[in-house]
Write the structure tokens for this entry.
Amino acid sequence: MNRFTVAWTWIARKIRDLRPQLRLCLRVTVAALLSFVLGRSLNIPLGGLWAVLTAVVVTQMSVGGSLKATIEYLVGTLGGALYAGMIAVLVQPADEISLLIALAVTVAPLALLAALNTNFRVAPFTAVIVVLGSSVTHGGPVVAALDRVLEVVIGGLIGLAVSLLLFPARAHHLAIEAAAVMLDRMAGSLPELLMGFTRTLDEKEMLRRQDHIGQAFIRLTAIAAEAMRERTAYLAFEPDPGPLLRTLLRLRHDIVMIGRAAVVPLSEPLQQRLEPPLAGVSWTAVDYLRGSSAALVARRCPPPLAAADAAFDGYADAVAALRREGLTRGLPGDAVERLFALGFALEQLRRDFKDLEQRVREYARSTRGTDQKNKN
């Protein structure tokens, strides 16, 4: 294989990996160009500058994100323009002192409103443009407010239309991919954490893995909120992402509990007896998490849970045998607590696996229902 082939393969792989980002780049560019052309054709002041800026801001990674940004931008702009126009008409700044007073009276309440309600984040910005813009262009505050609202409406509608029509990225699909990433990260961390009961772990590495899982959940939460907006606006007909989100949060808590209990290894006799069943739990749990991740993305039925159930039963039987033999009676209190915490965490993990099975099955059923409707 020559260098050209290697380079082309590398470039193709990078393009494939960056496909969502490249599509967003194309959508933003098209929205900006369309807003500029329409702004110029309507002879909007400043050549449609604010229409272009609005289109760039509201065009987001997903349709749900674009819908949220458009609504927030329109609401904030309308509120800020109306209030600033009213203040400018009442105060009628004729010099720098009166202009300063009008600016303070306009910005202060809107800044407080923006701090209380994020839908009005652009309201102070709009108010500044209306008050100062009218003093510069001498077109009057009412004209400045109307121009500002018109430009934002044009840019917002174009940005939303481009998000819907040009390579639309549904937040539900992005949420499924984010959930799969989180499941894969938990699958990659679980074996290392369970090994902590039989050998000393690298605490920094363990915390780093836990942080990566937490970051994946934060990203999933943000995307799931956009998916809910798509559902509310009837732009998507997918299962409610809320139950999947709650199941993954419980799985995240299970991983955290196991990590806290694994800080110090068990005593030598317990290690010898519990290492084999823990290994069984480890590899079957990893297989189930990764299988669920793949099934979720492919919209297939969940993988069988029988192997993981058998592994959880094997661990419970091993602990019960230790208790019958009296090997847990002489343990220090902290060791007993860690053993109890591990057993509790694994039992919770088992229950949450069953919930995960139901969530994956829901998405598989929703796809079959959609396919049936399309055939009919």
